[in-house]
Amino acid sequence: MWPMTRTTDTSAAAVPMDALSTGLLALLNEKDAIVARILADEATRQATTIELIASENHVGPAVMHTMGNWMTNKYAEGYPGKRYYGGCRFHDEIEDLARTRACELFGCRFANVQPHSGASANIAAYMAMCKPGATILSLPIKSGGHLSHGLKVNFSGTFYKIVEYDLDPKTETLDYDAIQSAAEACKPAMIICGYSAYPRVIDFARFRKIADSVGAYLLADIAHIAGLVASGVHPSPFPHAHVVTTTTHKTLRGPRGGLILSDDEETAKKIDRKVFPGSQGGPLMHIIAAKAVCFGEALRPEFKEYCRRIVANAGALADGLAEHGYRLCSGGTDNHLMLVDLRPRSEDLTGADAESWLETAGIIVNKNGIPNDPRPPMVTSGLRLGTPAITTRGMREPQMHRIAGLIDRALAAGGAEKVACEVRREVRALCTEFPLPH
Ligand code: DSN
Predict the structure, then answer these.
(1) CB-based contacts of 122: which residues, under 8 Å, 6+ apart?
(2) Is 77 an active-site residue?
(3) Which of 50, 168, 226, 227 would you label with 294, given CA atoms 20 to 30 Å apart?
(4) Is 180 exposed, middle or buried (0-12, 13-18, 19+ CB in 10 A)?
(5) 197 CA from centroid of ligand 1 (Å)
(6) Whose CA is nearest to atom 1 of ligand 1?
(7) Are residues 256 and 371 located together in one domain of the fold?
């Protein structure tokens, strides 16, 4: 069995840990005890809390430990076979492997695995598809879009003319007819679909029709749903999108990083040039190695089952919360996340309070604006919850109903310490029953 490591958080349960992690902490204890202590505390925090942030996950030991490898020592600017540095033979091999696996996983012809993040992927993809100042049609962050889809203070809002489409205010879902009209009115160079807080299926084919009708490119940012797309649990943006961007660390359960996919050779060439030298220097080859491991894991049949369970768990958690009187925006969820309107349970309850009270109880969430939220983004009337991380722990529908009950108990108590401690104890017990991958 794995050795048990007790950290400086003496209130925490002993945390099951794989041998390499235990070895790392022992090494760091000798070389840098301060960092060792901080990392051990974080490992304990993750092991003993319920992670419901929709964009987070727990990587397995293979991905985790591949991130710290020899390839971090190397500059490999350029691409396989065309590098600006010597000594890149194995970097070529690993990058080719990652690209090939990514293409197999997403059913496309070209992959650029070098973007450091989802935002970096978007920067390069926008540069490849649009000239500065071009019009981009996208969903604003307040309605579920991402900051790199056009927020004024972001590069996207600075260098492009952003026109917004919005959700249908009644159904809180995408209104494709309205998007068509918006596209006809503004004639964008590019339309962005794919979101950070949208709980429903995206009709990529419909988006492509809209894009074609006005001569626009279609970019699908599938950062949140990448795992679901790869496993066929959500429809694929291919062959509809001209370019697809994603992160690798959400439902895909890989290292923190970005990825750009495409099907057309000319587009792929433009994208490669805009990643390097357009917007990045040396690729993080150690992370690209971990991306290859992640794609290899996602190609296995058990990953498909994992993604099916993510969605089933999200449905069960949403049902559980609805039974306790919370309102699910759009009426529920089809994917890994849900937006919870707290007001029907208690008019005064804000997302900020809920986030803080739940953290005290060991349940980690993020406050999130709901469509047409009257409260500002740092307060909000809602929470965004997701099930990728708790599904990784092996939790199933019965645990989702239990977690919905724990959330309600902590929130109904208005942050009262006694109740938070009781819930915290139950959270610890659940976490012990369903340990992190090790
Ligand atoms: N910040 C991420 C999220 O939480 O959805 C998106 O990049």
Answers:
(1) 146, 148, 149, 156, 221, 245
(2) yes
(3) 50
(4) middle
(5) 9
(6) 55
(7) no
Per-residue pLDDT of the chain (438 residues; tens, 9 = 90+): 333 444 444 333 368 899 999 999 999 999 999 999 999 999 999 999 999 999 999 999 999 999 999 999 999 999 999 999 999 999 999 999 999 999 999 999 999 999 999 999 999 999 999 999 999 999 999 999 999 999 999 999 999 999 999 999 999 999 999 999 999 999 999 999 999 999 999 999 999 999 999 999 999 999 999 999 999 999 999 999 999 999 999 999 999 999 999 999 999 999 999 999 999 999 999 999 999 999 999 999 999 999 999 999 999 999 999 999 999 999 999 999 999 999 999 999 999 999 999 999 999 999 999 999 999 999 999 999 999 999 999 999 999 999 999 999 999 999 999 999 999 999 999 999 999 988
Pocket test for ligand 1, best of 146, 256, 366 (most atoms within 8 A of CB): 146
Residue with CA at minimum distance from ligand 1 atom 3: 55
Looking up tokens 């996207």 gives 156
**Probe residue for ligand 1, chosen from 149, 151, 192, 196 as the CB with the greatest number of ligand atoms within 8 Å:** 196
Instruction: Select from 275, 298, 321 the last residue of a domain.
Output: 298
Same domain, 270 and 316: no
Q: Is residue 247 flagged as an active site residue? A: yes
Sign of CA dihedral 178, 180, 182, 188: positive
CATH assignment at residue 256: 3.40.640.10
Taking alpha carbons only, the member of 309, 310, 291 closest to residue 106 is 291
Among 247, 251, 267, 333, the one annotated catalytic: 247
Q: Do 306 and 286 reside in the same domain of the chain?
A: no
